[in-house]
Inverse folding.
């Protein structure tokens, strides 16, 4: 299975990504985690990534592609991937589609998790006490939500036009959200005559 999770901060991408990976056998690739790991490296690149993340700004597309492409390529050759937080801009989406085409695979679905902004803010502020993340402060949370609305949100019509958007209400308990996504994906898999985790192309 090859999926991407498109969701504002606080919608539960990470939780759902891990669960969907366990369910489908695909690898969970979290862009934010890979970038945070790279930001820990004592190098100019590490410091540059950290500076964007701490402000809640998007890391430049070329850096993101350099960090993500090897992981996606490797996962595509195995059981597929659940991309969490990538792509986040139109150029990244176009690059991801080109990469998939080059690898001879296509995306099965773009899962869009949505919830009211007040719910997202509350969840992020609750999590902030435990996360230890430098970008989990009230001001930066507000900025991250704005960046989603102004930039990443444009990927919703992009994937709708491509006929692969699966929108799920994320303002529900985590198990209900997981079940909702799985029901929609099983429908897709049945429609295309495949089993979850199989590697044939759409
Ligand atoms: P959240 O969705 O809660 O903001 P993430 O861990 O997904 O958490 O992302 C944290 C930060 O990592 C972002 O604010 C941004 O700085 C950086 N980042 C993650 N994914 C991308 C991406 N695809 N493009 C650019 N920057 C990214």
């Amino acid at each position: 299975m090859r999926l991407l999770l498109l969701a504002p901060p606080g919608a539960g991408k990470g939780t759902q990504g891990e669960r969907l990976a366990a369910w489908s056998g695909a690898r969970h690739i979290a862009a934010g985690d890979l970038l945070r790991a790279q930001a820990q490296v004592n190098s100019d690149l590490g410091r540059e990534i950290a500076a964007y993340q701490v402000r809640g700004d998007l890391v430049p597309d070329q850096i993101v592609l350099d960090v993500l492409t090897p992981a996606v390529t490797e996962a595509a050759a195995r059981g597929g991937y659940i991309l969490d937080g990538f792509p986040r801009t139109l150029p990244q989406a176009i690059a991801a589609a080109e990469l998939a085409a080059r690898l001879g695979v296509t995306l099965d679905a773009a899962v869009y998790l949505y919830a009211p902004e007040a719910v997202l803010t509350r969840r992020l502020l609750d999590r902030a006490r435990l996360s230890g993340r430098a970008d989990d402060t009230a001001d930066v949370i507000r900025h991250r939500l704005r960046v989603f609305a102004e930039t990443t949100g444009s990927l919703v019509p992009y994937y709708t036009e491509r006929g692969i958007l699966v929108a799920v209400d994320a303002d529900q308990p985590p198990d209900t959200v997981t079940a909702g996504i799985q029901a929609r994906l099983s429908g897709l898999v049945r429609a295309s005559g495949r089993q979850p985790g199989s590697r044939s192309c759409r």
